[in-house]
Methyltransferase (Arabidopsis lyrata), 505 residues
Amino acid sequence: CPAEAVAHMPCEDPRRNSQLSREMNFYRERHCPLPEETPLCLIPPPSGYKIPVPWPESLHKVWHANMPYNKIADRKGHQGWMKREGEYFTFPGGGTMFPGGAGQYIEKLAQYIPLNGGTLRTALDMGCGVASFGGTLLSQGILALSFAPRDSHKSQIQFALERGVPAFVAMLGTRRLPFPAYSFDLMHCSRCLIPFTAYNATYFIEVDRLLRPGGYLVISGPPVQWPKQDKEWADLQAVARALCYELIAVDGNTVIWKKPVGDSCLPSQNEFGLELCDESVPPSDAWYFKLKRCVTRPSVKGEQALGTISKWPERLTKVPSRAIVMKNGLDVFEADARRWARRVAYYRDSLNLKLKSPTVRNVMDMNAFFGGFAAALASDPVWVMNVIPARKPLTLDVIYDRGLIGVYHDWCEPFSTYPRTYDFIHVSGIESIKRDSSKSRCSLVDLMVEMDRILRPEGKVVIRDSPEVLDKVARMAHAVRWSSSIHEKEPESHGREKILIATKS
């Protein structure tokens, strides 16, 4: 691709999106070109690109040359977001609402929320900036997934991922976020500027859908006790009351609520017209649906609630109730866990994949099912983005119940991330995730070019599939300038599949 395409994101292209409606921030959401409109070319790195600073040093500094964009440092340096220091950008850990550092801010929250001891595991940081909040929570054993749009700050998510913090590009606009109901134990907004009560509280309802019963919602900044926003603050409190949230604390410009476990207190009539979703239609996990105006509550009370679900790390291996609803779910879950423990051991011992290498931090599983691959890496200094492809079984809820993170995604569209943001990509069944797409035109070439876009130079790809598919993949790997080799599967495995290992030049 041309040199100016170094940060190209096909579905978040400002030139395309600027022509769209600004109602409900529609123009900042994903808007993907048709496959035939997407040029088949490889995204070049910027001039002077260097192999990223290894984890955990990367949490505090990254190479300036890898993302030579000074706008955030110039605008937010006084708030401690990030600074330019010689060859590096450094991250003091601050934010607009916590210029003294995320650590100090998290200590304040810990007065009201059980941040230690494994009660909380999954968090969503909305409008995250450069993700210092999520990065600091990692030391508490809390896995925070951070998101922000590609807006006037342009590259905030790229900085988050370069730091080694879980993040992706997203906008809370007209569509649901790509997660199942009850995914997150903690949801956080620090001056995220989401108008939670606008459009009859539609955005608050989406937050409520994603928050686990018994989970915590933290909002810092406007409109919480904010000058000239008395009505907005009153409306926010009214919505929380209508949804029966327990007010834990108002500390300065920070409010903390706890979501109720049951649905018994939800009134049938209230000023926002909130009603329960039709229980005859299960809460859809489909990520492409438009935002809904009804409130989701568990059909089986308490099974997904904080306090009922096991603490971390026990919840990683315990069979979640949402796995058991699948036919033979208990047996399938346990077999999947054994299979991936065996496979990852084979990757390490026989295929010499250095998954504990300092150069491996951001990992993606493109066809995750129950998250068995990620679970087998739980003791490694990596995090895994578990992706559930379109038209596959909707198992992402099981992944979140295990204390892991991920998204739904159609792999015939580009992923919501910047170029060069993953060190290691794993896919079991590459042909099936391409075939199961909702798109009429989707080729293996398109998929390989997209994998190359999001993979860092010297990053690795592991693909499991039939010998016929891997022969095709190997030819394409040469075309996208990967060096590759094909290996036998682990001896205990049945079936015809083999394993391709590739390295991006």
About this structure: The longest strand covers residues 455-465. DSSP finds 15 helices and 19 strands in the chain.
